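1st attempt posting a full record on here, be nice pls
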Amino acid sequence: MRVAVYFSPQALAQLQAAHTWWKNHRPSAPRLLREELAEALALLRTAPMAGAPYPHRQLRDVRRIVLQRTRYYLYYVIRSDGVAILAVSSALRGRDPRLR
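the predicted structure (as tokens):
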């Protein structure tokens, strides 16, 4: 069974910033982030529980999946209408993003 995957406005803005940064700073692999993201989204469509549980003080049932080669995290929750990506963040930032 396939489920819908969609981005919150915050996650979409973060993703756009990540794509811009990646394109400008990784000229030897400009499409890697897009490719790895596509793989992760395909996985979430068929296996929404694939990400590891991520404890959060205010939100319940948050999960996180890592994009291994680019070192980005996708933070998400599973809702009745699909998988909602809440944030896209570099694992190298040293702090977790605000989740809403």
